[in-house]
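During the no-cost extension, the postdoctoral fellow (Dr. R.K.) reprocessed legacy sequence entries with the updated structure-token encoder. One reprocessed record is reproduced below for audit purposes.
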Amino acid sequence: MNLVESLRDIVGPAGLVDPADAEPLLSDWRGRYHGKARAIVRPSSTEQVAQVMALCARHDICVVPQGGNTGLVGGATPSEAGDAVIISLARMAKVRDIDIGNDTVTVEAGCTLQQIQELAASVDRLFPLSLASEGSCQIGGNISTNAGGTAVLRYGNMRALVLGLEAVLPDGRIWNGLRGLRKDNTGYDMKQLFIGAEGTLGVVTAAVLKLFPALRAHATAWVALESADAAIDLLARCRAACGDALTSFELMSRSQLEVVYQEVPDTRDPLDGASPWVVLIELADPSHEAPLQAMLENVIGTALEDGIALDAALPASEAQSAALWHIRHVVSEANVRFGTSVTHDISVPISQIPQCLAQTEAKLLNAGLVEGARFLYVGHVGDGNIHSIVLFAHAVWAQVTDRDARVDAIGTIVNGMAVQYGGSISAEHGIGRAHREELSQYKSDVELDMMRAVKRALDPKGRMNPGKLL
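Re-encoded structure tokens follow.
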């Protein structure tokens, strides 16, 4: 069999990626993982995906689904063996339906997150998922990794935003579960198997997504804090005073902000201060009349009086608010420019965040693993998700001879402490290639057995995204 010719017959010449253009699809966004592929196809329809999957099934060929390739754990990168076919969903970007009365939109997996956000806004609605990579990440990848982002505190992650799915199974069969129902008590909720499965059970090709009322009133604050404990206190005060209007509560360490200000020219400190921690707070409401600014000023004013907050900046315009969010969104870009970051996407109970971070930092220092590096923290503290980062400058990392062992040792301590505090080793980035081996250390045998049973039932030969997750 000539695989390339058979694939071209299915997807046409435009759907087959020229080997000369393949390199960006064979490496992850951070450049840490590199692989090879027998071929890369870009189907334009679910039927074409099904035909490609059936062809690969007949000839026992592995498949790697790929969205925008913006993931941070190597989940969309093929192995170095070069025995897989990559299925990119980039050409499947149609909007199939908008149901205003049901507050849903049905889209294909290749739609970018920004495209869906703009579509929702055009019909006076909101799709609340918000990520730094929203201009390039695709909704199929967001679903497959159960993406989180900055609005999880109010709206939940992708599991909470998906009502129905269409997916192609490993044998080429199409499962149409595109139901826009909020209540469907008819047995197993099959869509949840594919959300967060990282392409190991099939290829997500379309989804029915929830829409929400457009947000017309906003209030934003940049608040300086002395400690992570103060952030937890301020979060509780904001929840009590602001209720559902509290949309985002983002925590950043001074060490992280210094890297941003150094590496990204169009950023500056709103307070010109040196507080150890900062939180970015946003309130939002569908009503123009909502007294959000007064609400936020009151809670921050009380926090200042009580010594919980050190200082605060409340922007007076949308442009000023956007500038604050820009600082938050360019964190990853700044860190890549500065050096090599050993990043961990942990979650712990909110009350345990300060103690967990402090003890983890002490352990890493005692172990002698972070000489010359910086500890950075940034995260959606309102849902317990903290990105714990050990950042090595390029020159420092170049002198490290045991890089893989160093990364593994740092990960063992960071993730081990998160689990010790009742947390998880992955809050939103997924497992992919980066944490596959660790997963078996932190999941119980019973839970792993259940996951493997699901995998065997849908993908008995293990052809879907091999080497990822399980």
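The chain has four domains: 3-88, 95-213, 217-329, 332-430. The CA atoms of residues 379 and 386 lie 4 Å apart. The remaining legacy entries will be reprocessed before the final report is submitted.
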